[in-house]
Write a structure and sequence with these properties.
alpha+beta
């Protein structure tokens, strides 16, 4: 590095540390107390620990005081409590007990601690022979207390299969073998399919139940090995008062890729078929030990019953507290079309109080798929998660956080009528996310690209015309505190959401595909004289919402404008707009990015001669397309794990079906194969950035995760080496242990530090 670059690194390093130190709220729970005017909230908080290359976890508590005469009052505990070595926590329904999970590493036992309000009541060590670590991800993860708080159901890795042992004296055997000594060694055995990106080397997600009193752990019975399970909840008590059944989500290995038994990558992929199943608690008496998975018409002795055989997708099951309703989300449209994410729908089952496994349960629609929303109306459901308890106290209204065009909003949904109401402010361009429900009120966070998250408390009030409206109070709290330096830097920025018209839409487009898309514009003071970074999300069926991101805020603080484009194909604009992109990648999405750039140039908002572009995954695909197709429009670029050559990716990725979907459209499902035809390989190449590599002029920073199974490093390396072969300016950074996201704290820090310096040095020339 020359002296100027070295100085720039030093300045930006200190600045990025300021942004990295801001803590995040991961989740929250609210519990009732004996005082109707008071409730207790518990928050799970995380903070990056760069030196240890991990994340610190804390819990913090507050009392929420409210009544009709006094203002809202939050009383906070003086300090957060650090949870060293804790993988996940789960409070009991009453809030009087807490499950603390410490996952074992390298074969050590998993520790389950039951904590009451004064001490550790019980500690259970679960050996690897019973199960491995608990799943804590956003997809398979599930921990559920029963109402009596005597049992806990959860999802953990099943015990590994025995490895063959080769013994100098006894020869070969395949069994639970003794520890390795000088006379034997363990082999590898048969290879097992896994769920791809981030799930490599993890055991099959399986269902277990802990009896707190005895400390015994049992595996659920009657679940076939071909079924991976997650998101478990207890079914309501029967008339005798016992909770006998568990409801969970199950994914079969045959998950939509022709007729193979291959498990395709599941992370970020809601198009994997799944169903809701019910099974008997393993501590309940049963005459059947190993019944196969069946459907609702199966023999009543079958322990695992498919509750949703009529639809191809069902997840996030949630029972109302009175036990009358089971609601769940579905990604039927994603499964049926092949798009890796699509518009969700909400469904319900009227639960029978004394349900028997041979009784059929009807699934009814609550919120259907929205195809083409008009005039900024409700665009459909796009939910990446659901609260563990999303129900208002009326037991017929659920709260969801959903993307709504380029924002996140909080919705209330009446499961009886299907009425959807936006309860976060309609005139706000900020993004809102629900943390927990407090009776008929909502604890939430609100943020923008230039405003770190703030806690809000929402309540309904009656107006003079007898209608109810939502009031959102800002909560003074110690949780989210940006430094004065960060606040000062961001105070000079503004943001807005721009509607970008589709230029010359083709006749074959659906009505939804002709509607305007959006871009989030974060502007500096005197933006027309400052350089601009075009930021492109991955997917392509992912979204950039107007919430706070430390990395985007960091780049803005360096004096850059940010143009964050939600091109057509982005979820939350209706299903027709989303489905307009498959089969047209490398053209329609590229043109949308250019249209957004032309829009801000035409409005006089930016300097057209100082534009950089950055993206990850499909955003990297667009980044490398743009510098190849339009080499004179971009001064510099950066790409994180980009898709550069579909014809190379098809044989190495954990989601080969994605290549067919984006290149061939909905017809890609019928063509999808592990052995693509020469015509398809030619098509994949033609739609890839590498087809335009000879025209690239912009210096490129390539950041690659060495453990990426989604877009393996061979894709980026081939492109980078081809650029270097042509004499182009290319810099490659490799993070050997990182997966697709490059999310390890030190790796994330180093990658964005280098992006900031790379852009600053080239845009200042």
């Amino acid at each position: 590095m020359d002296a100027l670059a070295s100085e720039e690194y030093a300045l930006q390093l200190k600045l990025l540390q300021e942004f990295t130190n801001v803590p995040r709220i991961d989740s929250a729970w609210v519990f009732k107390t004996n005082n109707k005017e008071r409730s207790t909230a518990m928050y799970s908080i995380s903070q990056t620990n760069l030196l240890a290359n991990n994340t610190r976890k804390y819990v913090l508590f507050s009392h929420i005081m409210r009544n009709d005469t006094n203002p809202l009052d939050f009383q906070w505990s003086p300090f957060p409590i650090e949870m060293n070595g804790v993988s996940v926590v789960a409070p009991s329904p009453s809030g009087s007990k807490l499950l603390v999970v410490r996952n074992g590493e390298k074969g050590s036992p998993t520790k389950l601690e039951i904590v009451d309000q004064s001490h550790v009541e019980k500690e259970i060590h679960v050996n690897q022979s019973v199960h491995g670590p608990l799943y804590t991800d956003e997809w398979f993860h599930g921990i559920s207390w029963n109402q009596e708080e005597t049992f806990i159901a959860y999802i953990a890795e099943n015990s590994p299969e025995p490895k063959p042992t080769f013994d100098h004296d006894a020869g070969y055997r395949k069994e639970v073998s003794p520890e390795k000594d000088c006379n034997n060694w363990k082999g590898q055995g048969d290879w097992e399919e896994d769920w791809g990106e981030t799930y490599s080397r993890k055991g099959r997600p399986s269902l277990f139940v802990l009896d707190i009193a005895s400390g015994e752990v049992r595996a659920a019975k009657g679940i076939a090995r071909s079924l991976s399970v997650g998101q478990v909840v207890w079914a309501p008590p029967t008339s005798c008062g016992r909770q006998k059944h568990l409801v969970f989500v199950g994914w079969l290995e045959h998950n939509g890729f022709q007729n193979t038994a291959r498990k395709l990558g599941i992370k970020y992929c809601s198009n994997r078929p799944c169903s809701l199943y019910a099974t008997l608690c393993p501590f309940e008496e049963s005459d059947v030990d190993n019944a196969p998975v069946g459907d609702a018409k199966s023999d009543s002795a079958s322990l695992a019953i498919n509750l949703t055989p009529s639809i191809s997708s069902a997840f996030f099951p949630r029972f109302s507290k009175d036990g009358k309703f089971l609601v769940f989300l579905s990604s039927n449209r994603a499964v049926d079309s092949g798009a890796h994410n699509a518009t969700d729908s909400l469904h319900k089952i009227n639960w029978l109080s004394d349900w028997k496994t041979d009784q059929h349960l009807d699934v009814t629609d609550v919120v259907p798929i929205v195809m083409c929303p008009q005039d900024d109306c409700f665009p459909g459901l796009y939910c990446s998660s659901m609260l563990s308890d999303p129900w208002f106290s009326d037991q017929c209204t659920v709260i969801l956080t959903s993307a709504w065009r380029s924002t996140e909003v909080i919705l209330s949904i009446d499961v009886l009528s299907g009425k959807v109401t936006r309860i976060s402010p309609e005139n706000s361009e900020y993004s809102w996310s629900a943390l927990a429900v407090d009776g008929h009120n909502v604890l939430a966070v609100s943020s923008s690209p230039i405003d770190p998250p703030q806690i809000k408390y929402g309540r309904q009030v009656s107006s003079k015309d007898q209608t109810c409206k939502w009031i959102w109070d800002e909560v003074n709290n110690p949780l989210i505190t940006a430094s004065n330096k960060v606040k000062d830097l961001l105070s000079h920025h503004k943001f807005s959401i721009l509607k970008v018209p589709v230029i010359n839409p083709s006749d074959d487009l659906s009505d939804g595909g002709k509607l305007p898309f959006e871009a989030i514009f974060v502007s500096c003071k005197d933006s027309s004289h400052k350089p601009t970074i075009l930021i492109l999300h991955g997917g392509p069926h992912s979204i950039s919402v107007s919430s706070y991101s430390k990395t985007s805020a960091f780049l803005a603080s360096l004096g850059f404008n940010l143009l964050i484009v939600n091109y057509r194909g982005t979820p939350s604009f209706g299903e027709e707009a989303l489905q307009s992109l498959p089969g047209k990648v490398g053209s329609q999405d590229v043109q949308d990015c250019l249209a957004a750039l032309d829009y801000v140039i035409k409005e006089g908002l930016i300097d057209a001669s100082k534009v950089a572009v950055v993206g990850i995954s499909h955003g990297g695909f667009l980044t490398t397309h743009l510098i190849g197709q339009c080499p004179d429009r971009f001064m510099v670029a950066a790409a994180r794990n980009p898709v550069c050559n579909l014809s190379l990716m098809i044989g190495t990725t954990d989601i080969p079906d994605w290549c067919y979907s984006v290149a061939c459209g909905t017809e890609g499902r019928q063509y999808a194969s592990e052995s693509p035809s020469p015509d398809h390989l030619r098509l994949f190449y033609q739609k890839s950035p590498i087809a335009h590599i000879s025209k690239v002029k912009a210096p490129l920073l390539m950041l690659l995760g060495g453990a990426d199974l989604r877009v393996p490093i061979s894709n980026g390396l081939q492109y980078a080496r081809a650029l270097r072969e042509r004499g182009s300016e290319i810099r490659i950074m490799m993070f050997p242990e990182d997966t697709h996201e490059i999310s390890k704290p030190q790796s994330d820090f180093e990658s964005f530090l280098n992006i900031g310096v790379w852009f600053k040095m080239h845009l200042s020339r």
